């Protein structure tokens, strides 16, 4: 398996990955397209097996309401793997590579709204323990992974995702 940066020529294959990974829903592929169109993908990676794109992950900027500190938080969403390639470690590899690329890009922390049991394997912790909430009102499933010591010690507030997330269903 190869993990490499997303290119514009990957768009159709990535849309298909997300459509299949999310039981035919189109929202995730629309979010990916809108984020790329808005040049708002901090990190976007594809997983390739035998020349076929089988997985994709995207990280985009987030904001923290009423936050005076200059902190770079990015949101992990979406991550998708074709159903026939799930449980092969592809999603895990995408997350690990993506988090490292976010660190290299200067991000202070990554947030995700997802399954706590799954994401805790990668060092994500409940964001509310750090004083972070989110625009969706989720608690247990909203998690954060600081990317360096003290990265978010002075941060608290409500995390808001890029506007393209709200536009996904239009």
From TrEMBL:
Keywords: Transferase. The keyword ATP-binding does not apply. CDD domains: NAT_SF. Residues 1-148 form the N-acetyltransferase domain. It comes from the Archaea. GO terms for molecular function: acyltransferase activity, transferring groups other than amino-acyl groups. PANTHER family: L-AMINO ACID N-ACETYLTRANSFERASE, UPF0039 PROTEIN SLL0451. This is Putative acetyltransferase.
């Amino acid at each position: 398996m190869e993990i490499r940066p997303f290119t514009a020529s990957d768009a159709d294959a990535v849309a298909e990955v997300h459509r299949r990974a999310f039981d035919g829903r189109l929202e995730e592929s629309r979010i990916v397209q809108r984020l790329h169109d808005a040049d708002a993908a901090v990190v976007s990676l594809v997983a390739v097996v035998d020349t076929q794109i089988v997985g994709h992950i995207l990280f985009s900027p987030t904001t923290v309401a009423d936050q005076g500190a200059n902190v770079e938080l990015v949101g992990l969403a979406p991550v998708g793997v074709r159903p026939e390639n799930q449980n092969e470690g592809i999603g895990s590899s995408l997350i690990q590579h993506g988090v490292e690329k976010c660190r290299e890009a200067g991000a202070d922390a990554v947030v995700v709204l997802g399954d706590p049991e799954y994401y805790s394997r990668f060092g994500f912790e409940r964001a509310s323990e750090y004083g972070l909430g989110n625009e969706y009102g989720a608690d247990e499933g909203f998690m954060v992974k600081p990317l360096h010591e003290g990265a978010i010690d002075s941060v608290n507030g409500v995390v808001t995702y890029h506007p393209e997330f709200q536009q996904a269903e239009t």
